[in-house]
Task: structure prediction
Amino acid sequence: MAEKEQQKTITIGRPAGFRDFYPEKYAKVQFILETMRRISKEFGYVEYVTPSVELQALYELKSGEGLVGETFKVQSRSKQKLVLIPELTPSLTRLLAERQQNYTKPIRWFSIPKCFRDETLQRGRVKEFWQYNIDLLGVEDIYADAEIITILIRIITACGLTKDQFVVRVNDRQFMQEALELLGVKNFLETIRVFDRKGKLFQEQLEKELRKEFSKEEAAKVALKIRQVKLNKKYSLEELPSSPLVQKLLETAKQLERTAFLTALQTLGVTEAQAETLYALSEIRDTPTKFIARVEKLMPNKDVKALLEPLATLAKLLGDFGVLDFVEYDGSLARGLDYYTGIIFEAWSKDSILPRAIAGGGRYADLVATLGGQPLPGTGFGFGETVLLELLEEFNIPTPKPTTADVYIAPIKLADVKPAISLSNKLRGKGIKTILNPFNWRIKRHFENAESHGIEWMIIVGEKDLAQQSVTLRNIVTGKQEIIPLTSIVKTVAKCLKNN
Result:
């Protein structure tokens, strides 16, 4: 007799950078997304949806080669070059270019699509994520920036973080440009990019030094760790290799950062004196009032006070909203995208516990003119769920326990399960989420199953009660129970849930 071929087991994992979400983890994601949605609606914003793919040409026009290089590219059967969307701004641009005249200004919109980026993986960075986007369009007043920043803070605090755990850093691109002009620096955009890459320049300088002793891959890992130690003294030095070179780099980190920044500026033709002033500006991070005073002292020019007026106005409005304690002004903040023209901001964990921003955005002078629409100023931000989810776990912040259903029906030794099914239909018909397990189980197993789903209310359906046209309603948490007529059980359950 021929031997049976042994069945082969094939294991296929998920692609790198993509995540599975089992129900308990997905419940945390849903909590974040629903908080975003709830806060948006509290401020009068409405939700919109766009496709998960866009023409590659749209991103080449609106986002530049850097972002296009990080996209997942696909081609349709008709040979159209498409990308899975890495962000939403170009899609929003396209929508508004087509139909902005149909909407009364100001336009308050938000969306929470899934986005895709083929980036290098690190903590807080994945290749598929939900990204909340919110924009207030058609308003040039600083109030719009204050409202948008307030929404960002409200969402993060509603998810459980406190002012001791995160901060929103703010700067003004218009102030930076005009300050550079006062200093005689002409190459504005490239100089701004140096500000935006300040931390990365420092990290690259560290890598260069570390390659004298470590492999390229190890040097990159150690450089990132040293940068994190510099940002957050709570990081454990034990994670760093024991090496005289590493110790020297830790001791000279500040000087290395300064040198990397100054060198990058001088490569652009910025004079030594100008570069020193810009470095000093990049080092100012303080409360709004102290920031403005320190900048005025650094640049004692009669025009500087006027340039800082938008930041002063913003601080007053944020104070009126009651969120100023969550904000600091940061002279190094630049944000790399060229379309920002005014107030810019990023939310970070305190002491940069994670090396990525929670969210970021700012003001842009025009969103849609390049696609044929009328000029439309606005302000807004993008907010991936990834970093916030990591921070909730980092700080052990509990999220609401997921509840599968509102009520559990436990039939006990029923000859006919029709009454239990009929009751479940009535409950669901009133919008009450109901689980029914019409199996020959003991009551203990029903309790265990209901508790595993986080359900508080159980309806016990037995032959004795049914003979009296009634059922038993039990609160699983308190243990209290009472017999309720079948004619009023749905109403009673609804009332119990409403009271909770």
